[in-house]
Design brief:
With 112 residues, this protein is an alpha+beta fold. It contains two helices and five strands. Bound molecules: adenosine monophosphate.
Length: 112
């Protein structure tokens, strides 16, 4: 989508700190990290939110990529968290589906 910031990152129009890319998925570091490791994993295709996913292969590529990145960065030793915010009360601020991969500190539970 032409005015979507994450579409622009995925297609290279806006530079970003990429950590992973394949045919379906891009992953880059969050500009406002909430943990020492904070990576966003997105589908390259524009999907507004988790509520708009109608093809289960989106989940396998998104979560599969996140687990692969976590493994490559050695995050499983101390643990990590995957979060998908959806809609206003879910805390979603960018209307392009994204998975947060967070690690590097004790993240605590429950979330605020
Ligand atoms: P959410 O609140 O779940 O929609 O998360 C959106 C995330 O995108 C936030 O953590 C922002 O810090 C992050 N973000 C916004 N713009 C950019 C950008 N240009 N590059 C990297 N991360 C971004």
């Amino acid at each position: 989508m032409s005015d979507c910031i994450f579409c622009k990152i995925a297609n290279g129009e806006i530079p970003s700190d990429f950590v992973y890319e394949d045919e379906n998925v891009a992953a880059f570091r969050d500009v406002n990290p909430q943990a020492p490791v904070h990576i966003l994993v997105i589908p390259k295709k524009h999907i507004a939110s988790s509520a708009a996913v109608d093809d289960s292969s989106v989940w396998s590529s998104l979560m599969g990529s996140a687990v692969k990145i976590a493994r490559e960065l050695g995050l499983e030793a101390d643990g990590y968290r995957m979060v998908i915010n959806t809609g206003e009360q879910g805390g979603q601020s960018v209307p392009h589906l994204h998975l947060h991969l967070l690690a590097g500190r004790n993240l605590g539970w429950p979330p605020g």
